[in-house]
Structures are given as structure tokens and as C-alpha cells.
Amino acid sequence: MNILLVHAHPERTSVTHQLAGISSEVLKGQGHEVVQSDLYAMGWKAVFDEQDFPSRANRDRLSFIEESGHAFANGGQTADVEEEQRKLLAADAVILHFPLWWFSMPAIMKGWVDRVWAYGLAYGYRGAGNAHRYGEGGFAGKRALLAVAVGGPEIDYSPRGINGPLEQLLFPITHGTLFFPGMQVLPTFAVYGAAGLDDRGMAEASAAWRGRLDRLFEDAPIAFRPQNGGDYPDRHVLADHVAPGRTGLAAHIAEAGESRRVRPGD
Ligand SMILES: Cc1cc2nc3c(=O)[nH]c(=O)nc-3n(C[C@H](O)[C@H](O)[C@H](O)COP(=O)(O)O)c2cc1C
To answer: Domain tally for the chain?
Structure first.
């Protein structure tokens, strides 16, 4: 299998860097092809701006969606963006390694998404607007996994913890960014208390991470509901009979044992 490791930390001794190193070692050891995007080492341009569109569709007004679609369709993207898309499209699995900064990914990684997730590929797939999203699209068939170094203690991220549950905080990444263009997203791997981890803590985290890597192609993905699987008849809102009475983020994840309505012909 081909695996893309994307990581966002400039310090080699950081938890993030150490876990990325383990990923490379373990996955290569299993015979996989491992490709890396070490964003700080690459000097990745984080800001999405007019420099991303050397040949503009419209010189009067900068519309990011229009220019992204135009550049993607006409071979007008910058070389760094093209290279990352090539790596992504070749990957069977993508692992994002990052420290939790303000309950999200560092700006350099957000900028990697902003610039690489082109219109026509990651959204507006095949020029069909939102016809293909959430479970299908340009990155369908790939697995994705977040490996996050979290400064705070696990209790702060527990079901009633003060920060909110980590998997809910990361929903815009797992659901909105990775599942949107079609990836199957595995439950997040987190190392809590990462800011002050001692050798023993790092050894425990490393062992747990090795276990997750061993099961990369076996673990069940988060049961996000696909747009076109029948739960969203108008492609916008859950049908009344699906997760009745439930609202908010959790309603978009099928519960274990939930009876799935099968579409005629499936
Ligand atoms: C800009 C910044 C924002 C941070 N935001 C959070 C946060 O939202 N929640 C948290 O638990 N820790 C936060 N931290 C602490 C980091 O998550 C912590 O330093 C990191 O996980 C340590 O891992 P590393 O060795 O990979 O850097 C933040 C740190 C920085 C520098």
C-alpha cells in the first residue's frame, strides 16, 4: 500500500515528530511505500492567496473557488500544490500528524488543506456542485487518520470535560475536511499531556501508536453518514426517521446497531 504522512512540527524531539518517525519505521517495515510531507522542512506556503493562481480566469476580482477550479482544470496550479495532489491521489492511506493548537491543526497544515483541496477535486467534484460529497468524491477509497499531540490532560477532553470531547472538537477536520471528499476516517489517535511527557509516557504512547499502525487497514472507520446513502433524501438534512430527535454533530454518525434503510436496488 502507499501511505502519505503529513506532519506539522519543526522540532525533531517533539511528540509529533517522534510519532511521525515511528509511522515511517513501522509502515516501511510492513512493506508499505511511505511518502512524507514534512511541512515545516518543506517551507510549505501556508497562506492561500493570489500567488496560487498565476494564470487568472478573472483579473478583476479574486474568487478563490472560481480560480481554484480554473487552475485545476487547466493545469494552472502551482508546482507545490500539484505535487501534494499527486502524493494524495497515489495514497491508500493518509496520516496527519500534528500538535493540537487552539483545538485544531497548526496554520501550516490548515494552509496545506486550503491550497491542495482544489475545486473540481476535493469539492465541486467533476463540476457537479455538491452531488458528490461526504463519503464520495476525489479522495474516495482512501483511509485517513489523525495522530494528535494534545497538551492538556485527557480528563479535560472527557465526555463532560471542560474543553469538550476531542473527537467532537476535531469534527471539522475528520468530517468536514477528510470525509467530505470521500475518505474513510479512522478514530483519532491522541497523546494527552504531550507538553510534559516523560520517557515512560512517551514509551507508552509509542506502543499504543504502533498498535494503531498495525491495524491501519483493519480498524473500522468512524460511521459518518454518506450524503448519498439514503439518510439525507434532499442531500441537505437528515430524514425524520434517521436519528429521531438527535441534533448537532453526533447525529451525523450512525450509532452501533442502528438499522440502516437500504435503498431499493442496493
Ligand atoms: C499555539 C499553541 C496552541 C495550543 N493550543 C492547545 C489547545 O488548544 N489544547 C491543548 O490541549 N494544548 C494546546 N497547546 C499545547 C500543545 O498541544 C502541546 O504543546 C503539544 O501537544 C506538545 O506536543 P509536541 O511535542 O508535538 O509539540 C497549544 C500550544 C501552542 C504552542
So the answer is: 2
Residue nearest to atom 2 of ligand 1 (CA): 101
Give helix 79-90 / helix 107-116 axis angle, nearest 10°: 90
Say yes or no: CB of residue 99 within 6 Å of ligand 1: yes
Domain extent at residue 33: 2-221
* Structural contact between residues 94 and 142, judged by C-beta atoms closer than 8 angstroms: yes
Sequence-ordered strand ranges (E) for 68-227: 93-99, 143-149, 184-185, 189-191
Question: Are 84 and 141 members of one domain?
Answer: yes
Give residue-wise pLDDT tens across range 102-123.
Answer: 999 999 999 999 999 999 999 9
pLDDT tens digit string along 67-109? Answer: 999 999 999 999 999 999 999 999 999 999 999 999 999 999 9
Residue 211 shares a structural domain with residue 264: no
- Measured from the CB, is residue 95 less than 6 Å from ligand 1? no
- Do 134 and 237 lie in one domain? The reply is no
76 lines ligand 1 (CB under 6 A): no
Same domain, 170 and 234: no
Query: Strand, helix or coil at 127?
Result: helix
Which of 150, 173, 197 has the most ligand 1 atoms within 8 A of CB, as the residue to mutate? Answer: 150
Question: What mean pLDDT value characterizes the chain?
Answer: 96
* DSSP structure class, residue 187: P
Q: Which atom in ligand 1 lies closest to the alpha carbon of residue 148?
A: 21
Residues 136 and 230 in one domain: no
pLDDT of 35 above 50:
yes
